[in-house]
Design brief:
The protein is mainly alpha-helical. The chain contains three helices and three strands. It catalyses: Hydrolysis of (1->4)-beta-linkages between N-acetylmuramic acid and N-acetyl-D-glucosamine residues in a peptidoglycan and between N-acetyl-D-glucosamine residues in chitodextrins.
Length: 103
Amino acid sequence: GWGDHGNGFGLMQVDKRYHRLVGQWNSETHLLQGTGILVGMIEGIQKKFPRWTKEQQLKGGISAYNAGLQNVQTYDKMDIGTTGNDYANDVVARAKFYKRNEY
């Protein structure tokens, strides 16, 4: 499916404005593309903020996945400008929910 005003594609909501879309919306190819983008964002945050904890870097990478590396300026305000201004917090909360409920 499409989200973000027709720009986000598939389960991973890969943004067609910044990435060439691959695979079907729910395919392994698509999931690997989105995962690769996320890993790249986490690595970018690790370089940008080497003193952050691994947990903070993961959260920063999630925020950057949504709004770009340039948007992440500080840990406390990383979600400003993301979807709902709480993208990373929302993703982490959902992941914890799924883990807790053994999905």
